[in-house]
Amino acid sequence: MTKINLTPVLKKAAKVIRARLLLQVPVASGSLRDSIEVYVRDNEIIVEYNEYGMYTNLGTGPYRVDEADKYEGDKEVEGGVFAQEWTALPESDIAEINLMIEKEIDKALDKVEDPKDIIFEI
């Protein structure tokens, strides 16, 4: 059996995600930016930040969106908080993360004769 440990590549992906979020997060006092934590636990990449970050991300009132799917920068509006969608990753970051994972799996596959003998560890 060949074990593939994806934890190191997930940690690299977490760094890519955190770097992107630090570029996109709206900054007034810096408190939200300073609260961003991205880490690997079990088999997941966890993203945490101050609770009010969800309001700057998804907006409030008439400016609320159901899901963040793009980053459009800071916008000032009255009667609510405009959704800034700062937690959304651009396609280029997603492609980079996918490529890192694919390369790690390919390296492991090159070392085995029968892919059925592979066990993924995270």
Features:
single chain; 122 residues; alpha+beta; 15% strand
Shape: elongated
State the helix count: 4
Class from helix and strand fractions = alpha+beta
The largest sheet, given as strand count, sense and whether it forms a barrel, is:
2 strands, parallel
Question: Taking strands numbered 1, 2, ... along the chain, how are they ordered across the largest sheet?
Answer: 1-4
Q: What share of residues are in beta strands?
A: 5-15%
Q: Please give the alpha-carbon distance between the first and last residues.
A: 16 Å
Helix content: 40-55%
Number of strands: 4
Counting structural domains, the number is: 1
N-to-C SSE string, H for helix and E for strand:
EHHEEHHE
List unreliable stretches of 5+ residues.
Answer: 67-71
Task: Summarize the topology.
Blueprint: E1 2-5, H1 7-24, H2 31-35, E2 37-41, E3 44-48, H3 53-58, H4 91-110, E4 118-121
Parallel strand pairs: 1-4
Antiparallel strand pairs: 2-3
Helix pairs in contact: 1-4
Structure description:
This protein is 40% helix and 15% strand. Strands 1-4 form a two-stranded parallel sheet. Strands 2-3 form a two-stranded antiparallel sheet. A hairpin with a 2-residue loop joins strand 2 (37-41) and strand 3. It contains 4 helices and 4 strands; from the N terminus they run E-H-H-E-E-H-H-E. The chain has helices at residues 7-24, 31-35, 53-58, 91-110; strands spanning 2-5, 37-41, 44-48, 118-121. With 122 residues, the chain is an alpha+beta fold. Helix 1 (7-24) packs antiparallel against helix 4. The longest helix has 20 residues, at 91-110. Mean pLDDT is 82; it is low at 67-71. It has one domain (2-51, 85-121).
